[in-house]
Design goal:
By secondary structure, the protein is of the alpha/beta class. 39% of the residues lie in helices and 17% in strands. A hairpin with a 6-residue loop joins strand 14 and strand 15. Belongs to the glutamine synthetase family.
Length: 841
C-alpha cells in the first residue's frame, strides 16, 4: 500500500466533476428512501436488502451519519437533521465541484436545478429530449389550433430546443428505454408521421414509445447538437424493469455512429453500458466521437462488479475518454456513495494497472485526474477549473432553506449598468415562481445608457426611453440573502425575447467573448478580485452631516482589524454562504480602508461573485450603521481603492500560464506571454471600461500602488501589470498576472470581457512583451509612457481601438463611450458632485 500512497492521496484530493445525475427530492416526497440503494421497484424491492451492494451502501451511509446500520435509524436521522443539513454533509464528503443534472426524470416533489447550487459551485442542466417532446405534445397547442402533424410538431420541437440552448450543457436520450438503440437516422417522415398519430391516439399524458417517432426526434436533436456543438448523453446498459436490456447494447448504435452527418457530434455512453462494458470499450476505441461514463454501475454493483466493469472499459478505451458520474438521484446519499465508491474503485483499478506494468505511477495519477475531472471539463466545454486549492469551497455549515413563498418574501432581480451601478427590481416570491422566473420583468432600454450623475440616458449612447427588454433571472445564481432571510437575490440576463440576448447585456457580452477564447484557443480565463473599500461613519459638524473614516489605523493594523472584526464576522460567513471563497482580509493603507480578497474562479463566475460581494459588504456595513464605499478616490488626500484583478489561463483543468520549465525568460508559457502582451497593448483603451469615472484617474497616480505607467513587471506592485509567483508556485514560474487599474466602479462583466478580448488579440497576433520594469516606474518616468491621465484620454484610446470594437460589438462600445463622455462633461462642470459618489458605489 505504501508504494501507492501517492496515488491514493491524489485521488482523494481531486474535486470531482459529476457529469450525470438527477434532482434531489423533498423529505416528504413519495419516493421511497430504500430506492436510494436499488433500481428495483414493486415486489422486487423486497429482495433488494439482501444484495451485496445494498448491504455495503447501507453500512457506508450509517457510518457517515453515525447511526445504527438500519434503514429505520438512517431515516430517523434524516428526519431530525433536515434536508439541508444532511445534503450539505453528503456533498461536503463527496467533494463535487461541478454537477450536471438531467431533470427529465419524473420524481415526486423534486427540487429545481437552481436549488442544488447551494451545495455545488457549478450546476449545469442536461436536457432529456424525449421529455421535451412529451411536454410539447402535452401542454402546447399547434400554431394553427388544429391537431398536431409532423410539420407543426417538428417546428415546435426544434424552436423549443433552440430556445433552450443557452440553458443547457448537453442533450440526453433514453431511447434505450423506449424502443432500443438500433436508431435509424434516415427514418422517413411517413414512418414518423404514423408514429406521431399513434402516440397522440393513446391520449394524455403523452408517453412516446413508437420507434419511428423516437428515431425521428433523436435525429432532429442530433442536427441541433451538431450545429450548436452540444454533446449527447445516451443511456446504455442496465436500468429499471421498463428497459429491454437486449435492446440497450451499445453495439446497436452502429448506424448512428456511421452517419457522416453526425461524425463530429460528441457522444457519451452512460452507465458503463453494463453488462456490455466490453462492447462500449470497443466502440470508444474505434470511434473518435464516443466517450464513456461509469455512473450507476458505480455504486450499484458489487465491489467485484464495479472493478470488473471499469477494468473492461479501460481494456481498449483511452483514459482520456472515460468519465465519472454518480448518477445520483432523489437523495443526496446517492451522490455521496457514487463519489466515495468511485474513488475506491478507480484506485483499485489504477493500482493494478501500475502493478501489472500498464501504467507508471505518474501516468496513473494523471489518468485519475482525467477520469474524475479533466475529461468532463473538456467534453462538456465547462468554464470551470479543477485546482482544489483555490476556487471550490464546499461549505460544511448548514445552508439556510430557500425563502418561503408567502406575502412577506421578496426576490431581488439584480443587474449592473454601463456605469457600474448595481440596481435591482423586487417582486414577491409567489409572483417570481409563478411567472417572473420564466418570463422576467420589463426594463427600459434607457437603463444601459445611464451615467452615475443622473438616472436618464446619455445622449451619445443612442439608447432612449423607447423600447423595452426583459430582465430574465439566471436561476443558477439565485441565493438566499444572508442578511435578511426573508429575501432572495438573483442575477439577470437581458433578453430581447426568449432565447435572444440583448447586445448590451453585460453577462452575455462576457459569455460571447469567453466563447471566442474557448473556440479559437481551447482556453478558459480565471479571475480573482481584491476588493478595497472604505468604511465611513456619519457625523454632524456645525449642523451639517458628513461622512468620515470609521478608523484611522495604518496598513494591516491589528487595532483597525480589531475594530472591524464584528463586521467581518458577518461579511465572511455571508460570502461563504453564497459559495464565494474568501482568501484573506485586512486593513488597508487608507484611513478606514479595508480589503477582502476572493478566491479565483472562471471569469463569468468571478464577475457574478464580485456583484454579490459588493452587495454583502455594503449591506452588512449598513447593518452596523456604517457606509461602505468602493469609490476609487474617496479622499483626494488619501490612498485610493481598487478592485485589483488576478488572471490566469486554463486548459482542460490545468493552469497553462506558467512556463513548462525554468528556461523561459519571464517564467510564462508562450500562451501566457502572448495573452499578457495583448492586454498591455490595449491597456489604454481598457481603462475606459475598468476605470470608468473621472474620479478613477485621481487614483491612477505614480507611487500609489495603482499602476500609472504603461509597463509590466515581475512582482512589481507599481507596474500597471504585475506577473505573480505566489507561495507554493515553483521558483521563477508565473501562475497569474494582476491588473492594478481595475476599480470598484467598473461593471465586472464588461471589465473582464474587454481584458479577455485584448488577450485574444495578443494570442491571434502572437504579440511579445517588452522587457519588464524591475524598479519603481516613477524613477524612470522619462523613458515610459503614462497611461491615460483622464477619462477623456482613455475614451479617445478606446474610440480608436477597432479590435475591441469588433470583439465587444460596435453598438455596445458606442453606449459605453456615450456614458463615459457624459461623466466627463458633468463632473468637469460640477467637481463637488464627486463627493456624492459614495452613495452610488
Amino acid at each position: 500500500m505504501d508504494d501507492y500512497r501517492e496515488l491514493k492521496e491524489s485521488i482523494d484530493q481531486i474535486e470531482l466533476v459529476d457529469a450525470h445525475a438527477h434532482n434531489i427530492v423533498a423529505l416528504d416526497s413519495s419516493f421511497p428512501f430504500i430506492g436510494t440503494f436499488s433500481e428495483a421497484t414493486g415486489d422486487a424491492l423486497s429482495f433488494a436488502p439482501h444484495s451485496l451492494s445494498f448491504k455495503r451502501n447501507l453500512r457506508e451511509v450509517a457510518q457517515l451519519y453515525g447511526t445504527q446500520v438500519s434503514l429505520e435509524a438512517i431515516e430517523e436521522h434524516r428526519q431530525t437533521s433536515g434536508l439541508h443539513s444532511f445534503t450539505s454533509k453528503c456533498f461536503q464528503e463527496a467533494r463535487i465541484s461541478a454537477l450536471l443534472i438531467d431533470d427529465g426524470l419524473k420524481l415526486d416533489k423534486k427540487h429545481d436545478i437552481a436549488w442544488h447550487k447551494d451545495f455545488v459551485p457549478f450546476v449545469g442542466r442536461v436536457l432529456r429530449i424525449e421529455t421535451l417532446a412529451e411536454l410539447i405534445l402535452d401542454e402546447e397547442s399547434p400554431p394553427d389550433a388544429s391537431s398536431w402533424n409532423l410539420d407543426s410538431f417538428t417546428k415546435a420541437f426544434v424552436e423549443r430546443l433552440n430556445s433552450l440552448v443557452p440553458e443547457v450543457v448537453a442533450l440526453k436520450t433514453i431511447a434505450a428505454y423506449r424502443s432500443g438503440l438500433d436508431i435509424d437516422t434516415h427514418v422517413s417522415e411517413q414512418v414518423a408521421e404514423k408514429g406521431l398519430a399513434e402516440v397522440l391516439q393513446a391520449g394524455k399524458p403523452v408517453r412516446i414509445g413508437n420507434k419511428g417517432l423516437i428515431d425521428y426526434i433523436l435525429t432532429r436533436s442530433l442536427e441541433v447538437a451538431e450545429r450548436c456543438d452540444f454533446p449527447l448523453q445516451i443511456h446504455t446498459g442496465f436500468g429499471d424493469r421498463d428497459l429491454d436490456l437486449r435492446l440497450a447494447n451499445p453495439l446497436h448504435l452502429r448506424t448512428l455512429l456511421e452517419d457522416k452527418r453526425f461524425a463530429k457530434c460528441r457522444i457519451v455512453l452512460l452507465h458503463a453500458s453494463y453488462p456490455f462494458s466490453k462492447e462500449a470499450s470497443f466502440l470508444s476505441s474505434v470511434y473518435p466521437q464516443v466517450y464513456l461514463d461509469f455512473g450507476l454501475a458505480v455504486p450499484k454493483l458489487s465491489v467485484h462488479g464495479m472493478v470488473s466493469s471499469v477494468k473492461e472499459l479501460l481494456d481498449l478505451a483511452s483514459t482520456k475518454k472515460v468519465m465519472f458520474s454518480t448518477d445520483g438521484y432523489a437523495s443526496p446519499e446517492t451522490y455521496y456513495l457514487g463519489a466515495k465508491k468511485a474513488r475506491e474503485v478507480i484506485f483499485l483499478v489504477l493500482r493494478e494497472a501500475c502493478a501489472s506494468g500498464d501504467l507508471s505511477l505518474k501516468e496513473a495519477i494523471d489518468a485519475a485526474k482525467d477520469i474524475f475531472s479533466r475529461n468532463a471539463i473538456g467534453f462538456y466545454k465547462l468554464d470551470i477549473g479543477t485546482d482544489s486549492s483555490s476556487r471550490i469551497s464546499l461549505k460544511s455549515e448548514i445552508k439556510e432553506p430557500d425563502v418561503q413563498e408567502d406575502s412577506s418574501s421578496f426576490v431581488r432581480i439584480i443587474w449592473v449598468d454601463t456605469s457600474g451601478q448595481q440596481r435591482c427590481r423586487a417582486v414577491q416570491a409567489q409572483r417570481f415562481n409563478k411567472s417572473v422566473k420564466k418570463n422576467g420583468v420589463g426594463l427600459t432600454r434607457a437603463a444601459m445608457g445611464m451615467p452615475s450623475c443622473t438616472d436618464a440616458p446619455a445622449e451619445e449612447t443612442k439608447l432612449t426611453g423607447v423600447g423595452e427588454i426583459r430582465l430574465v433571472p439566471d436561476l443558477s445564481t439565485k441565493r438566499t440573502i444572508p442578511w435578511t432571510k426573508q429575501e432572495s437575490m438573483v442575477l439577470a440576463d437581458m433578453l430581447v425575447k426568449p432565447g435572444e440576448a440583448w447586445e448590451y447585456c453585460p453577462r452575455e457580452t462576457l459569455r460571447r467573448v469567453t466563447k471566442v477564447l474557448k473556440d479559437e484557443f481551447d482556453l478558459v480565463m480565471n479571475a480573482g478580485f481584491e476588493n478595497e473599500f472604505y468604511l465611513l461613519k456619519n457625523v454632524v459638524r456645525d449642523g451639517k452631516e458628513e461622512y468620515v473614516p470609521f478608523d484611522f489605523g495604518p496598513y494591516s493594523s491589528t487595532s483597525s482589524f480589531d475594530a472591524a472584526s464584528p463586521i467581518f464576522h458577518e461579511i465572511v460567513p455571508a460570502l461563504e454562504s453564497l459559495n464565494i471563497v474568501v482568501e484573506q482580509f485586512h486593513a488597508e493603507a487608507g484611513k478606514g480602508q479595508f480589503e477582502v480578497s476572493l478566491g479565483y474562479t472562471v471569469a463569468s463566475d468571478a464577475a457574478d461573485n464580485l456583484v454579490y460581494t459588493r452587495e454583502v459588504i455594503r449591506s452588512v456595513a449598513r447593518k452596523h450603521g456604517l457606509l461602505a464605499t468602493f469609490v476609487p478616490k474617496y479622499d483626494l488626500c488619501d490612498i485610493g481603492s481598487g478592485s485589483h484583478v488576478h488572471l490566469s489561463l486554463w486548459k482542460n483543468g490545468e493552469n497553462v500560464f506558467p512556463a513548462s520549465d525554468k528556461s523561459s525568460a519571464h517564467g510564462m508559457s508562450s500562451i501566457g506571454e502572448e495573452f499578457v502582451a495583448g492586454v498591455l497593448f490595449h491597456l489604454s483603451s481598457i481603462l475606459a471600461v475598468i476605470a470608468p469615472l473621472p474620479n478613477s484617474y485621481d487614483r491612477l497616480q505614480p507611487n500609489t500602488w495603482s499602476g500609472a505607467f504603461h509597463c509590466w513587471g515581475k512582482e512589481n506592485r507599481e507596474a500597471a501589470i504585475r506577473t505573480a509567483s505566489p507561495p507554493g508556485a515553483p521558483d521563477g514560474l508565473v501562475t497569474n498576472f494582476e491588473i492594478k487599474s481595475f476599480d470598484g466602479t467598473a461593471n465586472p462583466h464588461f471589465g473582464l470581457a474587454v481584458i479577455m478580448a485584448a488577450g485574444i488579440d495578443g494570442l491571434r497576433r502572437h504579440l511579445q512583451l517588452p522587457e519588464p520594469i524591475d524598479i519603481n516606474p516613477a524613477d524612470v518616468a522619462a523613458t515610459l509612457k503614462r497611461l491615460p491621465e483622464s477619462l477623456s484620454e482613455a475614451v479617445d484610446a478606446l474610440d480608436k481601438d477597432q479590435v475591441l470594437h469588433e470583439l465587444l460589438g460596435q453598438k455596445l462600445l458606442v453606449a459605453i463611450k456615450g456614458v463615459r463622455k457624459a461623466e466627463v462633461e458633468y463632473y468637469s462642470k460640477n467637481p463637488e458632485a464627486s463627493k456624492q459618489l459614495i452613495h452610488r458605489y
